[in-house]
Amino acid sequence: MEIFSDKRTPPLRRIEKQYLIQLVNKYRQTVENKQINVVSIRQKTEGWELISREFSSMPNVSQRSGNQLRKCWSNMKQRSKKEKIKTWKHARSTRGGGPSSPPDRLQKMDTVFDCDGFGAETISSEESGNFISFYSFTNF
């Protein structure tokens, strides 16, 4: 068990956020589970501690606890939702006119998390007839 002080740590750098996105994507089934019961809450906590261990073992990153990474992930999702809503509002006010192409940072969090329908776009695959949902979020 690692001991982390209550002292404020510096914010995550861009590379650390990219590592976090990769790790959350790797353990998404556990940490983004929507169920709320004793077993799933314990699994989520263990999942975040596993992410913390893997994150801290990567080169050039600060040591972070599972709770710190969970909070950072939550903040990244909230900022992304706000940015997506802002884009939607702009598109509606201009009747569909908006930024011509999304910034590169939009691509970073695609399909990593489900945000209760915000940002969901459904497309149909012509070959298989399947429907695919994907998410794009910004400002992480």
TrEMBL record:
Pfam families named among the record's database cross-references: Myb_DNA-bind_5
Compositional bias segments (type: Basic residues): 83-93
Domain named Myb/SANT-like DNA-binding: residues: 16-84
Disordered, as annotated region: 83-107
Keyword field: Transcription, Transcription regulation
InterPro entries on file: Myb_DNA-bind_5
Function (record text): Involved in transvection phenomena (= synapsis-dependent gene expression), where the synaptic pairing of chromosomes carrying genes with which zeste interacts influences the expression of these genes. Zeste binds to DNA and stimulates transcription from a nearby promoter.
Subunit structure: Self-associates forming complexes of several hundred monomers.
Record-linked PANTHER family: APONTIC (PTHR21411), REGULATORY PROTEIN ZESTE (PTHR21411:SF0)
Descriptive protein name: Regulatory protein zeste
Biological classification of the source: Eukaryota, Metazoa, Ecdysozoa, Arthropoda, Hexapoda
